Amino acid sequence: MEIISLHRIKEILAKSNPETLLAAIEEGFVLYADGKVVVPPVGHLAFTDPPGDVHIKYGRIEGDEYYVIKIASGFYDNPKQGLPPGNGMMMVFSAKTGEPLAILHDEGVLTDIRTAIAGAVVAKYMAPSNVKCIGIVGTGVQARLQLAYLNSITPCREVMVWGRSLEKGEAMAADPDLSEFNISVTTDMAALAERCNLIVTTTASRKALLMAGQVRPGTHITAMGADASGKQELDPALFAKADIVVADSIDQCVDHGDIYHAVKSGELALEKILALGDVIQHAQRRRTSDAQITIADLTGVAIQDIQIAKGVYIAR
Amino acid sequence: MEIISLHRIKEILAKSNPETLLAAIEEGFVLYADGKVVVPPVGHLAFTDPPGDVHIKYGRIEGDEYYVIKIASGFYDNPKQGLPPGNGMMMVFSAKTGEPLAILHDEGVLTDIRTAIAGAVVAKYMAPSNVKCIGIVGTGVQARLQLAYLNSITPCREVMVWGRSLEKGEAMAADPDLSEFNISVTTDMAALAERCNLIVTTTASRKALLMAGQVRPGTHITAMGADASGKQELDPALFAKADIVVADSIDQCVDHGDIYHAVKSGELALEKILALGDVIQHAQRRRTSDAQITIADLTGVAIQDIQIAKGVYIAR
User: Fold this and answer.
1) How far is CA B137 from CA A44, B111, B148, in A?
2) Are residues A76 and A177 in the same domain?
């Protein structure tokens, strides 16, 4: 059993081709949509003193060499002690003998990266052919990673970032990892929606931030902030305007994604929702004109964890 | 995060006082019976080619410093490749920050030991005051460990082992780890039940091995083989003869222990079943005469994993 530290994981990621991980996660979504991934219910332990949550996500692709277990924790008072709230690891086992092969002690970083890669996969298949300006809603770790992973997907280098404060937006604009992009900053969502036709929302908002009236024809929106009950980033009416609506997991998005709010309010019929894996496989289910509005709702599925853990393990 | 190998775990166990682990597991059963242990449903992944099972057991004591996750696998074709069927690890985390503290890569050994210690705890509280002869049903790893851990519980050194073949029984009798005991071997269950008043059944049997008519007054029986649906070691009629019936987990034993068969056949009323933790705490629920027949059904509960993992971590 091999232990792979966060430092070593970062080295492995730096020297590996991002296309390989993107292809692995893309393949994962296809297998998931085709019912070839076994994903049991998520395990959960809740703590109150201090407050915390632990989630155990695990699964396997039918017939694969490996299975993966992820343990992820969030202890919200950790910053008071100078510790990050999140921690975690992904574990790779042999599906032929049960032997543990590697523990990737990623401290939660691989979850951030697999989430950003899902955004890149969506943009590859759903963005309009000519991206004029990328709009990023939010200024945190995931906002930055989503933008970084769009680098290889679109030649567009014009970016507008929306933040609750200009300071946070400006801090993101100054991030050396994003130096290839020309980033402007705004606190005005209408201005972002006016200018950008590929918008990624990455906040922990609990009410709609991007309104139906703000979005112009020809825009694609990836909403990845609403990953638990109570969270919301998109105006439900936006789903009624959309030509194509895609979910990473239809069940999860209907349960607690932005799609939940749209279905509940009657703006979105269940039959309209397509699985991301189906859109990757079938070109005819994708955008047919650059005037269409499309939305992808991402809640995060264990197949992403399986694929990134295997990817890092194989590339080590 | 510290990795503790099986070799190191064995060293820690060898130098630690067995009483300390016994006391920890005893305390665990009491806390469990008192509803102070959080044990979510067991996670499970099933494999068919080759056949295998992975179980994820986890939980915590309310207010404790630690939580524990156990991953245990059984891949039944492993011996064809010269590998043991079982593998696994126990992981100790901080319940205050979520940080992983240690991975005990015990390869399943700590599960065997915590199971044997539960047998010793039961004997401490339920065996007749004068054990004339210990009867062990089965000749495998758990048969040997159950006997080894009875060493500190009773001064009795007379042992009769039942095996399907005399060869396996004789191999167990020759085990140097059991050299303190005078072990005789039989294939006749009636002979064992005639002579022994503390009987431990440890087989993977799928039908009753020990019959009601064979057991004499004053006998205590610990049945720990039936840990999954379909397994059975005791004649259901034995439960009707018993004065006291105890379960490590009432829910689990009713679901898939030997108690399941006795409840189903009408030989045992649900109200008669006591929790092991209650019997440990309340002397008045224990044997009141050396003529009584008592039974303990053990299916294995996550609190045992929690306590042994913490015990080894603290003693390291």
Assistant:
1) 38, 19, 14
2) no
